[in-house]
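--- STAGE predict ---
source: upstream dedup step, 1 unique chain passed
mode: sequence only
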Amino acid sequence: MILLAGAITSLLVQGGKWLIDKLGYEMAKITILISVFALSLIFALLKYNNILTPEFIQTFVAILTMAIATYELILKNIIKAYDTLFKKE
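--- STAGE serialize ---
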């Protein structure tokens, strides 16, 4: 769960930096606030209408955590080893 939280936080920070670079600080701030509000509203509506069950959310979080862990622990090391072996200079 900590790995998932770290990955989400990192993704959000990088996305915020990208938005600030592209749109400027004030416009990025407005865009982020509108996006958070819209996502919260959609999540609340789906939860209220029982479209998103607690089991579905638990399964989704578990699958996402396993995918991130697999990348961080296995694939990242393979990619790094491949890059060092076949590095073109």
